Amino acid sequence: MRYDVTIDKELFSVYPEIRLGLLRFHADVKASDDHFWDYMNTEVLPQVRSGIEGKEWSEIPGIKGSRAAYKAFGRNPGRYRVSSESLIRRVRRGDDLYHINSVVDVNNLISVRSGLSVGSYDLGQVHGGIKLRKAEHGEGYTGIGKEFIDMENMLVLADDDGIFGSSMSDSTRAMVTDSATDILSVIYCFENGIDLDALLREAVSAFGRFTGAFGCSG
Question: Smallest Cα–Cα separation from 170: which of 184, 153, 149, 187?
Answer without folding.
Answer: 149
